[in-house]
Queue: 2 jobs
Job 1
Amino acid sequence: MSLSDEAGDAVGFPVLVAVDAPRHAGLEGALSYRSQHLLAPGTLVRVPLGRREVAGLVWEGGSDAGAGRELRDIAGACDALPPLSAAWRALADFAAAYYQRSIGELALSVLPPELRRLDSQGVADRVRRLYKRLPAPAGAAATTEPLPALTGDQAAAIDAIAAAGTQAGPGTVLLHGVTGSGKTEVYLRAAEAVLGGGKQALVLVPEINLTPQLVARFTARFAGRRIVALHSGLTPAQRLRSWLAAHLGLADLVLGTRLAVFASLPRLGLVVVDEEHDPSYKQQEGARYSARDLAVWRGHHESVPVLLGSATPSLESWRSAESGRYLRLTLPTRIGGAAWPTLRVVDMGSLPRANEGLRAAPQPGTAPGLAPQLVAALRQRVERGEQSLLFLNRRGYAPVLQCGECAWMSSCPHCSAWRVFHKQDRSLRCHHCGLGERVPRACPDCGNPDIAPVGRGTERLEEQLGELLPDARIARIDADSTRRKGSLEAQLGAVHAGEVDILVGTQMVAKGHDFRRISLVAAVNPDTSLFSSDFRAPERLFALLMQAAGRAGRDAATGLPSEMWIQTRHPNHPLYMALARHDYGAFAAAQLKEREHAGLPPYSHLALLRAEAGTAAAARDFLAAADEAARALPERAEVVIYAPVPVSVARVADVERMQMLVESASRPGLQAMLRAWLPQLDALRASRTGAEQRILRWAVDVDPLTI
Ligand code: ADP
Ligand code: ZN
Ligand code: ZN
């Protein structure tokens, strides 16, 4: 009896639902379920998947890979939440297709985790609470300090941005201006105009805790508006609250990191991407999307202007501006006439041998690896009560320990990397797999007690400076010194309060902060990036050095003449020459020429196929088999596939990692190839058996940032 009853009940509407399941052969699109009610696309639902119940989004279009099977009923629809808009779904559809993920995997993974967890009642509760706790909009009542009169360049930029929102020309604006040239003021005015028109603004920053001033300025300027933050540092409840406020249209301004590019914004009127060149806009796992690129796509699709700001734009954006796809606006001078720091290039090769290497015995009053003239300049700054900033892109005390008797070095047993010596807690730590242990008293191989640090990290630099300048107050900011929550803020506070004379740090300190009294910035050893195998290394180095230079002499009021020091063995390198003239245009032109000759982005399009396995051979075999499988595809003609090579740190935590570069002159050609090829790789992986298969994993990175 029950059988026929159930058959009789089998009415209702079939609905396609995107669920978070990886893209296996069968789960390309969405899955069909049965619903007793018509459900609008974009509705949040709960559905059975295997033996679990999961969150899903009603989707339209796409194929149902599970067609032919018995339809299961959806478990519930969430009425409290307005459906995600067609524009939002289009963004998710595009991102999933472009970055080669299933639609469900992408769409669900960019929703707040809490939203996926809650049932319909739970969501309804959160929405109700949000409305109840909503602060009254202060509107015009919240007056702040009078706004500065715009400079001519700023006013021109604002006009052009306003026009970009209305006319058919480029809707993407590249705002190029050095630190202190007034870009943030332009963002603020552009946002103000949009908010005044009843729309929402989305402002993306690379890392929220490295940009406290920007956040503070938006908060101060829009005191009467509802601003929410969206980033991974929020608790799940906070993140859901921010997301809901944006989705329900209650928030006027969303300030967030890359994940915020997927915020649901029903009244979106402007997208700002600050420091658009910053690599942290690229997600490095799962769907490896570029938030900057998606922001541009989103703005275009929703006919909303996108404002990309940087002192050193990515070469991709620069080229788009050159070709007229983006509108370029330039803020050529620093506000208030603050001078650009004078560049001092120290030729480390010309120093007396004693100061050259870290192993040689230094002259008294000097330290290895620090030019005497730099030390003298630092001493002078300390005496004058000015601040200095030194950066070195290597944390820890020394990158490796070495035995003086035998060949022992502090390698990591699980990675193809050294374990770094951290003096503070006398540990050897692998920065790749995290393995840490106490420093051995003697060489583990020969028993020789004389094991010595080789090279230098920020800890050692801090120690050297302490010995050379005993009266200076020295602080260090890097991933080690800021591990505790709140410690970064506390240390930055000390710098701002003038309690620090010399700040030592990794590139963390070169970003974003507005240190008013710094009159000297020094790059201690920037050469390491000059000859990297990664073709983007010079671009990153130039950006970092420009940004670091921008830390010096920001405040015209103090009138401090500022200097930027570079310690190098290549004093005539064109990169440093361009830096001396702070000529980004010349640097970009030279780089673009090289890229064009070499057929590299932005003149070609890349994807990386990565494989991880227990042995290098297994990873290589998999990639070779993938290459073989590609030969049968007609789309193969559009691309060049290079031979598999180990990634730069090939073994991490006993996993061997290989990669294979796929290149095409045509973006659609590359896309078509990946679409045809990648589904075969799952089958390929499944066909491999035994121990090899157990940990064999593959992933694709479209438009990879690091090669
Ligand atoms: P950027 O974002 O390019 O680093 P900012 O917008 O932060 O530049 O401007 C640098 C400094 O100049 C800030 O202290 C800012 O308040 C101030 N400023 C910006 N625009 C003006 C203006 N038109 N008149 C006076 N001060 C300005
Ligand atoms: Zn030894
Ligand atoms: Zn390791």
Job 2
Amino acid sequence: MQHRLSVLVHTPAHSGLSQPLSYLSDEAFPLGQLVRVPLGARETLGVVWSSAESDAHPEHTLRPIVGALRDLPPLGQDWRALIQFCAQYYQRSPGEVAWAALPQALRGLDLTQWSRRWSRFERTPAPAMAGTRPQGPDLTPEQSEVLATLSQGVSPCLLFGSTGSGKTEVYLRACAEALARDAQSQVLLLVPEINLTPQLEARVQARFAPWLGEHAVVSLHSGLSPAQRLQNWLAAHCGRARVVLGTRMAILASIPHLRLIVVDEEHDPSYKQQEGARYSARDLAVWRGQHTQAQVILGSATPSLESWHNSRSASAEGEAGRYHRLHMPTRVGSAAWPRVHLVDMNHQRRDAVLSEPVLQALEACIARDQQALVLLNRRGYAPVLHCGDCGWKSDCPHCTAFRVFHKRDRSLRCHHCGFASRVPRACPDCGNQDIQGLGRGTEQLEEHLGQWLEGLRRPNGEPLRLLRMDADNTRRKGELEAQLAQVHDGAIDVLVGTQMIAKGHDFRRIGMVVVLQADHALYASDYRAPERLFALLMQAAGRAGRDAQANASGQGCDMWVQTHSPQHPLFEALQAHDFPRFAEGQLQERAASGLPPFMHQALLRAEARSQSVAQGFLQFAETAAQALGATTVQIYPPVPMAMARVANVERAQMLVESASRRHLQQFLPRWLAALQQSRDAQRGVLRWAIDVDPQSI
Ligand code: ADP
Ligand code: ZN
Ligand code: ZN
């Protein structure tokens, strides 16, 4: 007898084929079975999705499947529910989400290749419990208290712990607890960017491999080769991997015995996927935890305002009271908080890169043989080249942006589309030979500091060692790790760089942190800019003060912030090291101006060769929304995006919002269906998509 299978396959977005397709099979396969099926002239991977016995297609119109990926356990109900939810919430097809969740190398294997691959996987040794449960250091009183609460199973939790308060130790203990509960249980540890924290991977390995076996810890992130990623995915899916350490993509992995999900640095914007299915791994973690009875711990020293709000006591507005807030205010050991000094740049020489007090402090820091960290969130030499005679600026011909001057290779480079050319000798418009950089980037700061440091020596008489770290000189494999190791080993005295030097590193000898041009973000159009800046500054502050010797001698450490607006309340909260004060202030503003988390938003974005086509589509969408009689959502008119053009593509967007997440969720699929049917309105549109809970507007 022939069975009907309803199979989820990957179909192009908006093709109208967003539902599973029906196929015939000699064998009845369980839901979640991976199969190969014909699709048009191709053969593709599919997932048996629902029972299709009752579908309306006459049998002779259906094609048979090619075959099943034998031996691979079917994807479980939990995973399928997660994919379904993700698709529904973020307004994508389940096929697209499933496709994104399955390792690329798996999608390309035909059945013969699959059986070979599977036997290779089976031959790799399964991890065997090797030793006894690891111990770790004695806990601080705050860590003990938090772990005692966690062991009661409360979930989801927001672990609000200062930088250096020992959150990582809490995660590792909570993982050990979950793993000890039964021999199958698995845990998932999410981090924003794995290559920025190579120590963490080593720390997790060192803790769990001696206990659970060498292959019990696997990682899942985009830096792996496709073959390695498939291997690790299989290990997680088949239960061999007990600890999965990964970036946002790992939230969609099949982990059948998942008991705990940790989201480290939960405020980090990189948890939001920015293309295709634009999901938030943090929000999916909370959903997945609730759905599978896995405990969820979100951790941060500067939580997102969403999570902070969700963990306010239930008497506050809206969705407050949903998360349990756990607090670890104290840094481990003798680690001190830096004293925060604001330097009012209005009172410094106009062309001063580093102010007088900062230079003095830097000299003193070097004399103490401590390291200094100088943060400037702009790479290149100068953000724009400019002709004083005629006003020419180094625009990118393809984007609404300037090309950045890179002195090292004398190039002008657009950081958005990659377009690069050599720096012209003279102004292309008027021939003036004296064209100059406006503003400053990390390359220029490195040059400037290099000159200044030349006259100085370390206490032992050796010359000073300066290192710059940014996306330009850490691109090649291994470069970033090598540079971080140099800083750790104390081989660097002054470290200059973009935000990547501020994140998560456990540097031990930083005596001072300097932040330049901090206020650029304060005047950005994005309402999340202050939140991001505050997080960055707190992170940067957290790098300092881990030098036990300096702390023991009562010397402490310092943070210097050069700004033109020292009176901004954000800096006051920073000086007091008071995240709650900052967060409450921001939440009040957000509530007053009707912004998230008090409002739920979605953006419709359209891209075309011209603004008029992109906006034309959005105007159609506006009319379509009104025709749906949507009274519970507010629809805003189409506008060009803040960066209207990137790589010759014009971009426009339109905001819809509602005070009720449910109302917005009810509206979106109806609207999407109307848009998908509008062949005429889509003419000339290159791409369009809905972004639910957008991270930037
Ligand atoms: P966080 O993740 O909160 O920034 P970490 O977990 O990195 O903090 O801890 C900061 C430092 O303190 C690390 O070097 C860590 O090894 C150490 N540490 C954490 N917990 C303890 C403890 N209970 N006893 C001694 N050292 C600890
Ligand atoms: Zn000119
Ligand atoms: Zn460009």
